[in-house]
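User: tokens in, sequence out, please.
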């Protein structure tokens, strides 16, 4: 559903067709669990996925209105609990897992191809006075959407290449990874670049040192050809890359706004350390805790949208968002669930590497979860692409908690 143009559905805070389909998937799992009369989740899975349930419910009591409480609960439960549990239940074995991974690759290629077209034709979102920023079908209001989808696909493609399989599978995965690197660069998303680079390096190192050296050489050669030979966004990419090292010395306004909102979120938490200011109450408390360095909003234009100022309604940091609105207790519960999945998944990754079986699934699950946890340092849940975050948590939960991840399908090579 995210491959389709969002139109008006993606402009506001309402749901999208992808959210509706995720609801149908959750409903299907609930009905099937009742009909089969079997325990759908193991005890460990029930505890890990159940931690955010209590934390979010308690935080909803502090919301300033019933609508904010219900809207916040539905969104958090969708992304952190219900969709991950549905993916955990519906993925039967490693072959199913690989199909979902390839689906993420395909979605990334589709969105990336639209993004490259936008860059070449000047029909993307506004960046540095030109409509060249690749945003796919997500539009100028969600400039992180395409970069997130493309990064998911790139992480999956690298994992499927490194994890073995037939020669044709490895060549296809490598070609997809190289192709996805172009729209990721043209998204001009510094955070996505950092998270993807860190995760891909970790994946390559885990797969083997000798292969890591070969892939590093191939990556450098590809970068030289793309940037030096074809001039893919040379000047603007260089400027954007150099700005990563200037976030403290000479930050631009977007970085200044982010630092200011981070400081405001910490200030809110210091006043309400245990339970926070209440679910979805960050916008109401923002002006009372932010300094005058905070601008009125970010500029939105291009990709079919008229120029306007988009208000800054969150700290753009998932950890600080939970901390400021829900307090330290909720952050410990939510982050504890993620940490548990990462630790359990890493243990199974070591086993898969030693047995040389299921390594591609391990690299996909651990890579996607690691990417998301890094991404949450500079982003939070929100926007049409958020439903994929629930899918990512579901894949990580399946690898870490499902018995099928250990046994594998019958006849797997």
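Assistant: Sequence out:
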């Amino acid at each position: 559903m995210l491959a389709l143009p969002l139109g008006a559905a993606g402009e506001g805070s309402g749901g999208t067709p992808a959210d509706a389909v995720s609801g149908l998937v959750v409903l299907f799992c609930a009905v099937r669990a009742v009909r089969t009369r079997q325990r759908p989740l193991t005890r460990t899975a029930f505890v890990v996925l159940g931690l955010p349930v209590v934390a979010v419910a308690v935080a909803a009591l502090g919301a300033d209105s019933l609508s904010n409480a219900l809207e916040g609960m539905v969104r958090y439960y969708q992304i952190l609990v219900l969709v991950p549990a549905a993916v955990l239940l519906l993925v039967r074995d490693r072959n199913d897992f690989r199909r979902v991974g390839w689906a993420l690759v395909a979605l990334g290629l589709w969105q990336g191809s639209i993004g490259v077209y936008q860059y070449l034709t000047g029909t993307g979102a506004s960046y540095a006075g030109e409509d060249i920023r690749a945003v796919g079908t997500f539009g100028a209001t969600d400039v992180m959407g395409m970069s997130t989808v493309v990064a998911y696909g790139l992480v999956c493609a690298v994992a499927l290449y490194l994890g073995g399989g037939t020669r044709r599978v490895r060549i296809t995965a490598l070609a997809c990874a190289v192709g996805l690197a172009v729209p990721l660069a043209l998204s001009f998303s510094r955070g996505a670049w950092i998270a993807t680079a860190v995760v891909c390096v970790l994946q390559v190192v885990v797969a083997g040192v000798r292969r890591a050296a070969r892939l590093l050489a191939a990556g450098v050669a590809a970068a030289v050809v793309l940037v030096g030979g074809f001039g893919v966004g040379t000047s603007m990419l260089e400027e954007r890359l150099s700005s990563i090292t200037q976030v403290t010395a000479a930050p631009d306004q977007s970085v200044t706004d982010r630092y200011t909102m981070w400081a405001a979120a910490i200030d809110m938490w210091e006043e309400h350390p245990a339970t926070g200011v209440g679910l979805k109450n960050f916008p109401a408390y923002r002006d009372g805790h932010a300094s005058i360095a905070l601008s009125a909003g970010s500029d939105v234009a291009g990709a079919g949208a008229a120029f306007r100022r988009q208000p800054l309604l969150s700290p753009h940091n998932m950890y600080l968002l939970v901390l400021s609105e829900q307090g330290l207790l909720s952050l410990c519960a939510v982050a504890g669930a993620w940490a548990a999945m990462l630790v359990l998944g890493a243990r199974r990754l070591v086993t898969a590497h030693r047995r040389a079986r299921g390594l591609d699934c391990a690299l996909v699950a651990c890579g996607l979860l690691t990417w998301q946890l890094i991404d949450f340092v500079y982003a939070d849940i929100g926007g049409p692409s958020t439903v994929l975050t629930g899918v990512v948590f579901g894949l990580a939960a399946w690898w870490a908690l499902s018995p099928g991840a250990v046994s594998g399908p019958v006849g797997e090579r």
